[in-house]
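Field: COMPLEX_INPUT
Field: COMPONENT_COUNT = two
Field: RESIDUE_TOTAL = 581
Field: MODE = joint
Values follow.
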Amino acid sequence: MKRNFRPAMTWLHDWSGIITGWLIFAIALSGTLSVFRPEITVWMHPELTRETADPIPAAEAAITWLSTHAPHSPDWYLDVPTPRAPFTLALWSDKNGYVFRPLDPLTGSPDALRDTHGGEFFYRFHFELQLPYPWGRLLAAIAAMALVLTLLTGIVAHRRFFADFFTFRPGKGQRSWLDAHNLLGVIALPFHLMIAFTGAVTLSTLLLPWGAQTLYKSDLTTAQHELHPAAIERPVTGKATPLAPIGPILRTAEQHFGKTGILSFYIENPGDQAAVITVTAGNTDSIGITSHVISFDGTTGTILAEHTEHRPVITTFNVLYGLHVARFAPGITRWLYFLSGLMLTALTGTGLRLWTISRTRNTPRLSTTLVDRLNVGFIAGTPTAFASYFLANRLLPVSLADRATLEIRTVFLTWAALLLFAALRPATKTWPELLSLAAITCAAVALISAPWHRSVDATTALTAFIFAAAFAAAARRAALKKRHPTT
Amino acid sequence: MMILALAGFLAVLLLASASERENATFHSPPLLPRQRHRRRILALAVLATHCALTLHESQNPAFALITWIGQFSVNALLVALLCTAIRQKPARLR
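Field: COMPLEX_OUTPUT
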């Protein structure tokens, strides 16, 4: 048993890795980018020139605009401006479905801002994969569990965990890929384990729905109320009643929340006698999310319910969720999350590459050849497809109808085209080609960030430029390898 | 802040110089196992002190601990690349 344990774990590591590797690669890269979700949204709105916005006047302006332009929406969800995102982010519904737009902090209107989902696309894609509920989330949950399994089996499979802790020997073919894979896995292992485990916990209700189903049967209202005791649901009365002024309500909430401030608020039944305003505190001073919520009567402004979360199980969940989404993280920690996320992405990429290298040395099977080719499409194609989202944001006409959807469509069309291109040609040819394309696309993102007046434009340009340089170096190496296969 | 960050990098570098494979990168002839052991203990002590100081300096120890773990990963990556660069250098330039 002992003698077979390591080979068995290595087998499990290889196969769980290759089956879910492409999915984990895309999830890890989009998750890494969504660390800077608000900053990406700001970059994608070059019209936003203000670096700061006062949350309460911005919320008042947003409510005034929504009262006129979305009075029939059953609810309005609003994230208040923060130093990272100096705009109000609003979600409401119209006859075509949900509308998600940043609102100008001064006018409360989305009209002056281009229609884009900004960083929200990467955030949503990270756990919904642009698939309908619950399929995307279920796939992401399975991928998170598979990542936990792959990491744990990888620890067992890695024979020289401490001896090779700092070892990377380039130019030695498979040995170099294995070194890179081990290095990236070992040095950021606490992050990898934490992010995989907390990711699985975040989607745990999809993986383990039976507890809640047994306890609450189909009574979702009771489940929701016990989970969020301060959330008040009132049926619509049909009696039109204006909303109480939002400013004093938010100021009262702010006094209750203290230094954490307001994160968001939502208004149920706006314009009706049964309107309820629920305000959620920020979480800048704790790892856990959503610990303090107050509900106000929407027409009188009186407090209906207030809840500060102290229940151990929910607090534990909130801390694990908070660790995953890193909303608490100050600037330096956010960058460390970003770098560690890149290491996880590269760890997955090197693992995928290793799987095929070790199987294509002799006469490879058709399936191995196909995996080898598609690896190029995923590893070099995914960054290119994601970069094309940034390019589409600046190149599509601002007045185009349904522009936000077209931006997202650009990503998937680019991705599909690159995967097809990679599938039809030998991997030795497509590696340098697609890596060069990734370098060009990233360099283009750096250039279209011009004139770099805003700090977010300059930082994005610098980051994109570093990516471009890294892809160019990789493309050069792949081209040399193509000419001299033994190097 | 900068001094603390530099101390973290140096501690990881010390740990690398005590490792089985990388000590040969820094020392010719390589260190004896007993010397490596001593150096490893010193490196771990410096790392532990660095962690304690980081937590002490911070207003929120939980945030600081998460940041410290992230910094260790990045430092380890930089040290690994540094070791690679030193090893790649022709022997006459070392």
